[in-house]
Design brief:
729 residues; alpha+beta; 6-stranded antiparallel β-sheet; 23 helices; 17 strands; elongated
Length: 729
């Protein structure tokens, strides 16, 4: 049945064989829809690695700016592991249970990131690299549970009764990377319209038999797992040594079921109802998609938008390399003039080379008439123009790709203020900030799914154990907080800020905290006279302070202390008959709490300073490496400049020697001939020189025309190669 003519799901029987036929039709249509994008993405990956794709001229000089640009962007987008920030959906209310629940979940997620740092780093790095190369980055969440039982123990040896002891369950919600070629999805214009998403996995015969049974393992076809379906064949050295089965895990949102499908099998391998019971069903967040449009949910790689510029730069660099090889001091000389050869091979400064039959040598035009150099002026001029055009094209590429935005914050004007530079940096890198926020939003959604899986499937004991929060300051509220986490309405919101994954700005963090402390000091100073006049207003003032504090990041740890202060301030109103506490004692307690908070803040500041020092040292090390590389490049350019200068000096020296020889020959001729023959000899010499000049000029013009014709032919051949490459791409 044609995949474009499905009218109803009832066209396929609701049997394992019918479901196999239906999903075979859907997956085949999806592979056709994504075929061109996959082929283009494989070529981009090969170009990123500096490898020659098929039908590409191997002699082309490739200036791999793609690799440089992507590494630069990746270093700015992702530099450290994320720090999940869990908060209540409504942070303005006096809901201590929700506050403690968010603190428990935040501790659990942060400890999980620390314990599985290598896995998180590998997954996020791979997802971001896929987004920058092929335009699609995907990761998903799983739920793993395993029951572990201990050996049987004798409960009553006399009666021979056995008793089984069962340990706590092992539960985990790992985050897994999904390779972009191991993903298919249904037709839709955006992520919310996708009817299904399929994830591919390769399983050995033993794994298939353990998962689906021995009968299904016999039906499945096994083949060699390849690096990429587009680049290497069955006999490639890069293929896996294992024969594996291709298994597709299909999450069907319309039916809220999961199917396991294998190409070539006669029936569906397995089907289950919604295993994770997530709010949005899919176990992955919206894809990290490049250049999304509303016509069809399919990526367009960033490289595709600037491919013509990348190709043009390679063409220009190839021509520059060819002309650079042509720039050399070569020429021809009269074979009978042995002195000319000795002058070039043996001559040093202040050295004279003897010439046999000087009169005949001078009659032939001297050194100028014996040596003819390759004209390199036209080649050097063409080389200079090509280098200028290449640099202009690179600048245009940086404008198109957004790399120029990274440098717009530089202090280009000596009279420009620091504030102006900060404004330029902020607005000049708008596209890079948008990509940072997109990546941070993807990671936030991914961790949100993980938290939802934890809340719906983890046992309460597992949550408390993994979070390590049962010994915290709010331990009495832990049971209710865990029950709130496991409730149907997940009350928590998870956010990961872009700056927590790129570069830590400790100055900004300290500025925010300092600004808050200054505002709180002003509030307390204004509220102190009112509290002294009527102590009953203290709980209301503390409530206002708590409401203000809830809007700041990291305030959940201090809200518990604020709640106790509010309860202590409200206690005299509830128990009017009791004796009022001593104000000096209250002041002393508050002073102790303040000193404790100051000590904690100082300790945190020292830790942050130590971390900042480590990062600064690493930045200095990287800067030193970059400086050394720049010095090496400068020395290389300086050496090339010195070589060109020496060539120019040599040419000028040779020209001066020629003029000296001509002048010497004229003097010798005047001394040898009689006074009456001097004028005739002058005219003859002048005529011969004019004729020689005309001959030299004609030969130079002919050589220039030959070089220009050769360059035109090279340019025409390169155009044909580029046209062929463009048609292939």
């Amino acid at each position: 049945m044609d995949s474009a003519k499905i009218e109803s799901i009832t066209d396929y029987k609701q049997t394992p064989r019918g479901r196999q036929e239906y999903w075979n039709t859907e997956l085949t249509a999806a592979e056709k829809r994504l075929r061109d994008w996959r082929k283009e993405s494989n070529k981009i990956v090969q170009r990123y690695l500096g490898k020659n794709a098929k039908n590409i001229n191997s002699k082309m000089f490739k200036l791999n700016l793609l690799n440089s640009n992507i590494k630069t962007v990746m270093s700015m987008l992702y530099g450290q592991l994320p720090r999940p920030d869990v908060s209540r959906r409504d942070s303005t209310g006096n809901d201590d249970i929700a506050r403690v629940a968010s603190e428990v979940m935040e501790r659990l997620l942060r400890l999980d990131v620390q314990d599985n740092a290598q896995s998180y780093d590998s997954t996020l790095h791979s997802v971001l690299l896929d987004r920058l190369l092929g335009g699609l980055g995907v990761a998903r969440v799983r739920y793993e549970m395993q029951e572990v039982q201990m050996d049987a123990e004798m409960a009553d040896p006399a009666q021979g009764m056995l008793q089984m002891q069962q340990t706590a369950l092992y539960e985990d919600a790992p985050i897994e990377y999904v390779y972009w070629e191991d993903l298919l999805w249904g037709w839709g214009r955006n992520f919310s319209e996708l009817p299904w998403i399929a994830f591919r996995a390769y399983m050995t015969r033993d794994e298939v038999e353990e998962r689906f049974g021995k009968d299904k393992a016999m039906q499945v076809k096994y083949k060699t797992q390849q690096v990429s379906n587009e680049e290497n064949g069955e006999d490639s050295d890069l293929n896996s040594a294992w024969q594996k089965a291709e298994i597709w895990e299909i999450w069907c949102k319309t039916e809220r079921k999961v199917y396991w499908y294998s190409p070539g099998c006669t029936t569906i391998l397995d089907e289950q109802p919604d295993p994770l019971e997530l709010t949005n069903f899919f176990p992955c967040p919206p894809f990290l998609l490049a250049n999304q449009t509303t016509s069809l949910y399919i990526p367009t790689p960033d490289f595709t938008l600037a491919k013509d510029l990348y190709n043009q730069i390679d063409v220009l660099q190839t021509r520059i390399a060819i002309l650079t090889d042509a720039v050399k001091v070569v020429g021809v000389y009269d074979q009978s003039s042995t002195g000319v050869k000795r002058m070039l091979s043996e001559g040093v400064e202040n050295d004279l080379i003897p010439v046999d039959n000087w009169a005949l040598f001078a009659e032939k035009g001297g050194l100028r008439g014996q040596v003819d150099w390759l004209p390199i002026e036209a080649v050097v001029n063409a080389l200079t123009q090509l280098q200028q055009l290449r640099d202009e094209t690179i600048g245009l590429l940086q404008q198109v790709t957004g790399m120029a935005d990274v440098m717009r914050g530089d202090l280009g004007n000596a009279y420009e203020g620091v504030g102006q530079t900060q404004i330029k940096t902020k607005f000049g890198s708008a596209r890079l900030q948008a990509l940072q926020e997109q990546f941070a939003r993807f990671v936030s959604d991914l961790v949100q799914l993980k938290a939802e899986v934890i809340g719906k499937h983890f046992e309460a004991e597992t949550i408390l154990q993994k979070s390590g929060a049962e010994f915290s300051f709010d331990a009495p509220l832990m049971p209710q907080a865990v029950q709130l986490i496991k409730s149907e309405q997940f009350p928590l919101r998870i956010e990961i800020r872009p700056e927590t994954m790129s570069q830590m700005d400790y100055a900004q963090m300290q500025a925010e905290r300092t600004e808050y402390l200054q505002g709180m000091a002003g509030f307390l100073q204004a509220a102190a006279p009112l509290i002294e006049q009527d102590p009953r207003t203290m709980p209301f003032m503390l409530q206002m302070l708590k409401w203000t504090m809830a809007g700041f990041k990291g305030s959940k740890e201090i809200e518990g202390v604020m709640d106790q202060a509010i309860d202590a301030a409200s206690q005299p109103q509830e128990q009017e008959g009791q004796e009022k506490p001593d104000p000096e004692q209250i002041r002393a307690q508050l002073q102790l709490q303040l000193e404790d908070k100051r000590a904690q803040a100082k300790q945190q500041e020292q830790q942050q300073k130590h971390q900042f020092d480590l990062e600064m040292r690493e930045a200095d090390r990287i800067a030193d490496i970059q400086t050394k590389q720049a010095e090496m490049e400068f020395r290389k350019e300086e050496k090339e400049f010195e070589t060109m200068a020496e060539l120019e000096i040599l040419a000028a020296k040779m020209e001066s020697d020629v003029q000296t020889e001509l002048l010497t020959s004229r003097i010798n001729a005047q001394q040898a001939e009689a006074a009456g023959e001097v004028e005739i000899e002058k005219e003859m010499i002048k005529a011969r020189n004019d004729i020689r000049k005309l001959q030299i000029q004609k030969r130079a013009d002919a050589d220039i025309k030959v070089i220009e014709k050769t360059l035109d032919e090279d340019i025409e051949r390169q155009k044909q190669v580029n046209q062929t490459n463009a048609e292939d791409v």
